[in-house]
Amino acid sequence: TWRDVQYLIAYTANPHLTAGPLTRNGAGLAVSRQYGFGVMDAEAMVTRARQWINVPPWIEHHITNVSQQEIAGVTYSATANYTADIHYLEHVIVKMSVAIPKNH
Q1: Which long-range contacts (CB under 8 A, 24 or more apart) does 23-29 make?
Q2: Residue 48 burial by CB count (10 A; 0-12/13-18/19+): exposed, middle or buried?
Q3: Cβ-based neighbours of 17, under 8 Å, separated by 6 or more
Q4: Quick one: what percent of the chain has pLDDT higher than 90?
Q5: What does the pLDDT average to over 60-78?
Q6: Which residues have CB under 8 Å from 87's CB, separation 6+?
Q7: What Gene3D superfamilies does this protein's entry cite (predicted)?
Q8: 31/48 Cα distance (integer angstroms)
Q9: What does the DSSP assignment read for the chain?
């Protein structure tokens, strides 16, 4: 699937051929703010794909109960608690709407 290709790209890219500082993400992969995971390595992708086990099916979770509290003036903080085990976190989408009163 496209998700498996996404993982293969991330796991086999060469981050050392990029410019700029590298940091480690939550999965322990080297990543650059400017260049992501680095230069794609087609040979490494094909080699790893030969033994690849597909990632589990995509599961979506929607959190709608969000607590809000005013911090200062018109600045707000929102917190959503999710307690299930997460083994693969691929994407986080945040949808929000903001209404600013005319007197601010």
Answers
A1: 26/89
A2: middle
A3: 38, 39
A4: 35
A5: 65
A6: 56
A7: Peptidase S8/S53 domain (3.40.50.200)
A8: 19
A9: -HHHHHHHHHHH-BGGGSSS-EEE-TTS-EEETTTBT-B--HHHHHHHHTT--PPPPP--------EEEEEETTEEEEE----S--S--------------TT-
Tokens for 69, please give them: 């509290």
Residues 34, 101: Cα–Cα separation, whole Å: 37
How many beta carbons lie within 10 A of that of residue 5, not counting itself? 12
42 confidence band (pLDDT: 50, 70, 90):
very high
Handedness of CA 88, 55, 96, 65 (dihedral sign): negative
Average confidence (pLDDT) over 48-77: 76
User: Based on the number of CB atoms within 10 Å of its own CB, is 10 exposed (0-12), middle (13-18) or buried (19 or more)?
Assistant: middle
